[in-house]
Amino acid sequence: EQSLSGSSAADIAVGTLKDTAEGTLIKAFVGWVSLLTPAGRAAKSYALAQQHVASYQYAEALVCFTYALAHDSESVYLLRERAKIYKWLNQYDNALQDCNKAIALVPDNVDTYICRAKINQQQGNTAAAIADFQQALHYSRPTYRLRIQAELYTLQGQPEQAFDAWSSVIADPALAWTSMYAYWQRGYTAQTLKRYDQALADYAEVLDRDPRNIWG
Question: How far apart are CA 189 and CA 205, in angstroms?
Answer without folding.
Answer: 15
